[in-house]
Amino acid sequence: MKLNILFFSFMICLCFNCQEKQDTKIETDCESTYMDYSNSNDQFTGGINMIPIETKIGTFNVYTKRVGNNPKMKVLLLHGGPGGTHEFFDCFDGYFPKEEIEYIYYDQLDSYYSDKPNDSTLWTTEHFVEEVEQVRKALNMDSSNFYLYGQSWGGILAMEYALKYQDNLKGLIISNMMSSAPEYGKYAEEVLGPQMPPEVLKEIKELETNEDYGNPRYTELLMNHYYIEHALRMSLEEWPKSVHLAFEHLNPNIYLYMQGPSEFGMAGNATLKTWDVSNRLKTINTPTLVIGATYDTMDPKHMEWMANEFPKGRFLLCPNGSHLAQYDDQKIYFEGLISFIKDVNSGSFN
């Protein structure tokens, strides 16, 4: 009898051990392929693809770098500026891989890591929309997986793309950008400027009146009284290296041409000065997330209004953030962004 009991106990233990080994094998067999580049043409470059862009003055290459593999969630990142770089988004590495969201860094034409034809006839929203479309095709993204994310000027570009090509989109994200350049200027002039010490604002205005934008004093005043309050709410010493690099690598030619020399809205002969698509947002039926921040250079109330204009809109407010809320209100920013992407993917977005 004791032998039977011992044999029975041995068999139970053996079964449990076998099941444990089997479960381990299943976990191994189901191991994520998110970071597996072994069957990809860009394994040699670590995900970097220089994509040829056809323009009216010739063909030029733009820099892209893919991180991860996910056939259902692919996010193309449109940087600000114009003339900025993908370096503003280096912090995405800290959040998207864990969620297995594929994302693509991308420097637009005439930005630091891409070709620089330096031809102002290409510095139009129409050109950049077609550039994004060529990148989309080259990376094989479509309405089953293509999320377009744009921050600041990238937000303008994302809206313009959606107005023409929304059928290609699965989701749209507009971060820290209003739908009207004149309203953006009004907010900077009437709300943000007066928050500065009067003597500082007076000196800045005098420099702008004299068009002395290259004066180091102009940059110093803005950095110490405007940028650390409304661009990235940290001391300059605390700014991440990637942000410093993005500013160092900014192309001033295209920036001045499209945005203008002033930081208080778009001024001078800036080509975007009258840009406004506020009355067209309601025609974009793509699920859309609008991200604003309390201390942003952009009016958060306007961005909340935008979210309500989109037929399928959602608003995310970063209460402690500014224009680069992905850094100074990071956890709320990414929690809301990731939730939106996954809700759209699962069909639970409403």
Automatic annotation (TrEMBL):
Catalytic machinery residues: 152, 296, 323
Entry-linked PANTHER family: HYDROLASE, PUTATIVE (AFU_ORTHOLOGUE AFUA_2G14860)-RELATED, MONOACYLGLYCEROL LIPASE
A UniProt-annotated Pfam family: Abhydrolase_1
Keywords in alphabetical order: Hydrolase
SUPFAM superfamilies tied to this protein: alpha/beta-Hydrolases
GO CC, alphabetical: membrane
GO terms classed as biological process: proteolysis
Domain spans labelled AB hydrolase-1: 75-329
Family: Belongs to the peptidase S33 family.
One term of GO molecular function: peptidase activity
Protein name: Alpha/beta fold hydrolase
Biological source species: Formosa maritima
NCBIfam families: pro_imino_pep_2 (TIGR01250)
InterPro entries on file: AB_hydrolase_1 (IPR000073), AB_hydrolase_fold (IPR029058), AB_hydrolase_sf (IPR050266), Peptidase_S33 (IPR002410), Pro_imino_pep (IPR005945)
